Amino acid sequence: MQLTDCWKHKIQSTNYSPELVCSVVVFLSIIIMFLSYICLKKTFTQYLLRRQKSFLFVRPNVPKNVELL
Fold this sequence. Notes:
Mean pLDDT: 75
Strand content: under 5%
Radius of gyration: 27 Å
Shape: rod-shaped
Helix content: over 70%
Low-confidence stretches: none
Largest sheet: none
């Protein structure tokens, strides 16, 4: 409780309204989430592409004299 009261007092001591501060915090958190989503998506697609390439190019070592059933 004391921590939130302290923050309320700090916000009230500035000239900004608490609603404005809250909306700015929410806006910044949404931007951070969006950027992290883009970054994760990029790395995930790179990982999938790398995995797909390795799956395509790396084939199991099968001796040539083995007949396929």
